User: Which sequence fits this backbone?
């Protein structure tokens, strides 16, 4: 699945990184606690979160995540967007709640970070 | 779907209020932010979270949620279980991360929009 | 975004490089007394399409292939170049930045400009659009090559050093309560470790542990420092602050235990998982604290025993 598919499934807008919609995403994790994301999310995963502060981008940088999608209609500020720009991390935003976002993506075949990728 | 069926189908371990699993789950809410659940949680929701401190029992009771599922192998604190028993709020745990647990609930027909 | 970066690089070079860097020196010149019928030979032999006209070391004009063709077409009598050359020559100074030269090419529509010394007006060379493009490309290639060498050197630093034991010591200073810069130290450390060519999985564990420790310094202390000792196969991250210190060390190691205020939780931290996360990333962790004195945290991460191992899951 690529970011474009994810954008469509979540009826999301692209906040940053329209050039990266072809980027492949295989896994996702959903959390509002960055400490959890840091150790449980896998490299390249999509992060679904209701937090919009710059620490979310920092976390994505440290854990080498593939992209961030803000849920519950939260709009990140300029500082968050600029940091993401400098780290080349694409940002999406959806008005759907976390539960619905995770459910839809899982239904369409995105797996969680504890599952093994089928080769 | 009744909470009891969900517990059985997803192999959840019940940590409190095991006698209160007959309520109907009408939807799901996933969040780790207390203020967000207070604002947006709906009566009849099952709540998926990483938070383990005793406030979760109070919030679940206040919003009349059906129960709380702690994900990613998180264990509730002792005070949390005591509080949950008092409020008769079932707390369950699973090894799955939130994304996967929600995915499986979604496949059982529990959705996250009103 | 990589495209943007390349454009920026060229923009940078266009300001940085001077006309003198890209001009052709050793230019073939003619005198104003050279006959026109000799010009064709000169242009053809040297494969050029125009040349400056110099009399007694001074630039007096410029003559081009177009001028020659025009002269041929008009079937005029033979004459000297001085009669047909462009006298009002526009020139560049050799210390002019390329960006000015580019805009002069655009405005004038000329194909070549003689280059002269700003002080004495002495002709130094000639420059065409092609010279500018070639010069830029060459410079980019050199820069790229230098970066490659730079990277290679950094990633082989341990092999290049001759010693019985080698360690690199890095220090990052963290200001307390400075949320604007929270994560910068971990981010800089990560970039450095990458340059050193360490295993990605090791880098990930070190960065995540350092990030959590950095957040702790920012949230709970007035600041401190992060010392990182990098050896070929082992990394020691030492995090020190000077207070306030922790009374019950056992308790803060319990998952979920936290004294963080609500606003810290709103940042996605302070859920009592930081030290557990550090433990999960570390092969070994030492944690000591004295109330009123400060806290010291030592994080060992080794690549010796299957160093590429992932972060430990909760047990």
Assistant:
């Amino acid at each position: 699945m690529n970011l474009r598919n994810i954008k469509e499934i979540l009826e999301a807008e692209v906040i940053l990184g329209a050039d990266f919609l072809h980027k492949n995403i295989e896994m996702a994790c959903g959390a509002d606690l960055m400490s959890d994301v840091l150790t449980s999310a896998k490299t390249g995963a999509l992060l679904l979160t209701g937090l919009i502060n710059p620490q979310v981008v920092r976390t994505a940088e440290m854990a080498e995540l593939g992209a961030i999608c803000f849920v519950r209609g939260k709009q990140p500020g300029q500082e968050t967007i600029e940091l993401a720009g400098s780290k080349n991390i694409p940002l999406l935003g959806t008005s759907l709640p976390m539960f619905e976002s995770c459910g839809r993506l899982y239904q369409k075949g995105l797996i969680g970070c504890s599952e093994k990728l089928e080769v | 779907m009744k909470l009891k069926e969900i517990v059985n189908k997803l192999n959840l371990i019940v940590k409190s209020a095991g006698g209160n699993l007959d309520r109907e789950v009408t939807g799901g809410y996933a969040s780790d932010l207390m203020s967000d659940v207070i604002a947006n949680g709906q009566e009849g929701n099952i709540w998926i979270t990483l938070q383990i401190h005793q406030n979760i029992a109070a919030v679940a009771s206040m919003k009349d949620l059906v129960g709380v599922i702690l994900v990613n192998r998180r264990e509730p604190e002792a005070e949390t279980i005591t509080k949950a028993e008092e409020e008769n709020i079932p707390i369950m745990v699973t090894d799955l991360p939130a994304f996967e647990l929600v995915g499986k609930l979604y496949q059982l027909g529990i959705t996250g929009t009103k | 975004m990589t495209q943007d970066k390349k454009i920026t690089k060229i923009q940078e070079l266009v300001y940085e490089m001077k006309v003198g860097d890209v001009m052709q020196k050793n230019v073939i010149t003619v005198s104003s007394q050279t006959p026109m019928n000799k010009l064709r030979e000169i242009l053809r032999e040297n494969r050029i399409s125009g040349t400056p006209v110099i009399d007694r070391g001074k630039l007096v004009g410029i003559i081009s292939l177009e001028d020659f063709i025009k002269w041929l077409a008009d079937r005029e009598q033979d004459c000297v170049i001085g009669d047909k050359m462009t006298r009002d020559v526009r020139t560049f100074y050799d210390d002019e930045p390329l960006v000015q030269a580019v805009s002069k090419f655009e405005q004038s529509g000329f194909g070549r400009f003689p280059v002269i010394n700003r002080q004495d007006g002495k002709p130094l060379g000639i420059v065409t659009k092609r010279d500018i493009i070639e010069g830029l490309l060459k410079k980019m290639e050199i820069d790229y090559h230098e970066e490659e060498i730079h990277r290679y050197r950094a990633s082989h630093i341990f092999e290049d050093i001759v010693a019985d034991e080698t360690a690199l010591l890095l220090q990052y200073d963290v200001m307390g309560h400075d949320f604007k810069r929270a994560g910068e130290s971990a981010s800089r450390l990560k970039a450095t470790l990458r340059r050193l060519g360490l295993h990605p999985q090791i880098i990930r564990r070190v960065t995540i542990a350092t990030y959590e420790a950095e957040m702790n310094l920012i949230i709970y202390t007035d600041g401190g420092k992060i010392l990182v000792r990098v050896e070929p196969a082992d990394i020691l991250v030492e995090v020190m602050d000077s207070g306030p210190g922790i009374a019950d060390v056992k308790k803060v190691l319990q998952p979920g235990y936290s004294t963080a205020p609500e606003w810290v939780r709103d940042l996605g931290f302070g859920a009592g998982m930081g030290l557990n996360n550090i433990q999960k990333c570390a092969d070994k962790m030492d944690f000591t604290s004295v109330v009123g004195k400060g806290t010291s945290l030592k994080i060992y991460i080794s690549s010796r025993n299957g160093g590429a191992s992932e972060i430990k899951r909760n047990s």
